[in-house]
Amino acid sequence: MQLGYNEIMIVSKYFEDINDFINLEIGIKRFQGNMERFHFNPIPLNQHSRRLFPNIETFHIYNKKDEVFKDGRIIKQIIWYKVNYSRYLEEKEEGNICKNIEYTKEDRIKYGNTIPIEVNSLGNECFSFYSILTPINIPNIIKMRHSFDRCSTLTTVNIPTSVTQIGDRCFSKCTSLQSINIPTSVIEIGNKCFFECYSLTSIAIPTNVSKIGDRCFYGCKSLTSIEIPTSVTEIGNLCFKECTSLTSINIPSSITSFGIGCFYHCGCEEELKKNKTIPEYCF
């Protein structure tokens, strides 16, 4: 089967270097003019390569340091690198599109505690040290870092299925947090994620998580039970240290790496010591 103009244009959209486009037109005569058919730039451009795509109408900015062009037929930009919500609103006024929008602490102070639906991620310390008196709903974001660190009055969080990463210290020292539902979309739970969440009573680790980070549940004194799926292969250092009320925890055979002191002074320490697959240094 011979590729036609439309097929080769679709294929060339995945080229990563300008030389691939040039070699295609030099090597196969019938594909000459392929670059002229593009109405957007499939790769970052410089002064030289810009001339090879004369009919661009939508200019894609893939990286913060990309050279930006506003000449010729270009009528709008699509920005792929991370921008804050304030910048997004400015670009929207200009008719541009932002694909990676982060709600920062500065944005929250300026625009309020309701997370806009356009947001993809929460910035570091977005709500940290802030007294949130009611449960908070998180829209369809993908990443959360230490966004709620030390929100001492936060009691309940609803995490949407769009979230894949809960970063380091995300809910660290949320001392009033009682319940949290982590969806199966989450594949990463960072270090100290629930560090000293004194009021948290139970939690189920999603079935796609492979590692529970260092000090993840350190000092969760009210935690009585936790479900660990067979997807987990590693428990971090001091992970469950000082979980003094923990009486129910399953240790699947999938776990091959135990962190130092991961069960030190936890409620089921003596029972876990009977499990010969758990090294002594865990206690």
For the biggest β-sheet, the strand order reads 3-5-6-8-10-12
What is the overall pLDDT average?
A: 92
Structural class of the helices, strands and pairings? alpha/beta
What's the total count of β strands?
Answer: 18
The description of the largest β-sheet is: 6 strands, parallel
Rounded Rg: 25 Å
* Straight-line N-to-C gap: 65 Å
Query: What series of H and E elements makes up the topology?
Result: HHHEEEHEEHEEEEEEEEEEEEEH
Please count the helical segments.
6
What gross morphology would you assign? elongated
Q: Which runs of at least 5 residues are low in confidence (pLDDT < 50)? A: none
Strand content: 15-25%
User: What is the helix fraction of residues, given as a range?
Assistant: 10-25%
Q: Could you describe the 3D structure shown?
A:
This is Leucine rich repeat protein bspa family. InterPro entries: LRR_5 (IPR026906), LRR_dom_sf (IPR032675), Surface_bspA-like (IPR053139). It comes from Entamoeba histolytica. This protein is of the alpha/beta class. The protein has a domain at 3-80. 15% of the residues lie in helices and 16% in strands. The protein has 6 helices and 18 strands. It has helices at 5-12, 18-27, 47-50, 85-93, 105-111, 269-272, and strands at 58-61, 76-79, 83-84, 97-98, 101-103, 121-122, 136-137, 143-144, 156-158, 165-166, 179-181, 188-189, 202-204, 211-212, 225-227, 234-235, 248-249, 257-258. The strands form 5 sheets. A 6-stranded parallel beta sheet has the order 3-5-6-8-10-12. Helix 5 links the parallel strand 5 and strand 6. The chain is elongated and about 75 Å long. 30% of the residues are buried.
